[in-house]
Design brief:
Helix content is 14%, strand content 27%. It is of the alpha+beta class and 73 residues long. A hairpin with a 2-residue loop joins strand 2 and strand 3.
Length: 73
């Protein structure tokens, strides 16, 4: 995990700097709260950890088993 220090208004570029996947900016800092602004293409999913965990928990499990080729059920 990369840990960096940024001040309000400063940004982190994700991916190739010439053509970034996205940008994360520190929008504001108030007390122990930090607001982040994220600019990513719509096709890139961005979730808070608790929401991501909920999405994972709600996905249906795969029905059946995957068998190597050539095996009959």
């Amino acid at each position: 995990m990369l840990v960096i220090t940024r001040r309000e208004g400063e940004e982190v570029v994700i991916g190739d700097p010439a053509n970034p996947i996205g940008v994360v900016r520190v929008a504001s800092v108030k007390g122990d709260r930090v607001r982040l602004a994220m600019d990513f293409p719509r096709e890139v999913e961005v979730h808070r950890r608790e929401v991501a965990d909920q999405i994972i928990a709600e996905k249906p499990s795969v029905v059946g088993k995957i068998r190597p080729a050539g095996q009959n059920p």
